[in-house]
Amino acid sequence: MQNKFVQALKATISSIIVALFITGLLILVIYLFLGQEIGTIFSLVNKVSITINTNKVEEPTVINEEKKSLENYPEYGTQYGTIEIEKIDVNLPIYFGDTLEVLKKGIGHSSGSYFPGEGGSIIYMGHNYKKMLKRLGELQIGNEIKITTSYGEYTYKVYDMQLIKETELDKLPVQRDKEILMLYTCYPFNNIGYATQRYVVYAELVK
Fold first, then answer.
1. 16 and 97 part of one domain
2. Average pLDDT over residues 155-170
3. Residues of the domain holding 9
4. CA distances, 89 to each of 120, 125, 135 (Å)
5. Per the residue annotation, which of 85, 172, 186, 200 is the catalytic one?
6. Over the range 48-87, which residues count as b (16 or more CB within 10 Å of their CB) and which as e?
7. pLDDT (0 to 100) of residue 16
8. DSSP H helical ranges for the chain
9. Is 40 marked active-site?
10. 10-19, 34-43, 127-136: which has the highest mean pLDDT?
């Protein structure tokens, strides 16, 4: 009785192994001969999905000159422009938001401040890494900072630099009377770990 059971078990296992082998062989054959066609089918499906999802056309972001405000604001965490500072070889993406994830990718824009073109305070920040704002301290009065967005280009001229404590929020005032760009990073520039000071560059809109 026991021998019959063992023989039946071995036969079952053998059948399973043979079935798996045949299945694998069939998959390999299908992939080799129909792989390209299958890829094409999936591409078509993706295109259909994209078409369905983009039926709703978003209005372009523009400045309402009468109210000096954006008609369509970017979503939090998304890129909406670039910042270029020729003097220190900076050309980085600008993201709306200031989370750690955002600052890993580029320059963050404080959600409590205005956007370029709105006529108020703009607060940008970035890490003091080598390819980011490590050379921010080299800027001098008169140097230009160029901001390019989907709705326009704006040039700011540096007029002041200050070293402040992280708690001195009054040094980063948000106001609507004049368009001022405030760009800061941690200080010292070669600091490792948490820094309690910030190096701030102040620039005013010139064109």
1. no
2. 94
3. 1-57
4. 26, 16, 9
5. 186
6. eeeeeeeeeeeeebebeeeeeebeeebeeeeebbbbebee
7. 77
8. 2-53, 100-105
9. no
10. 127-136
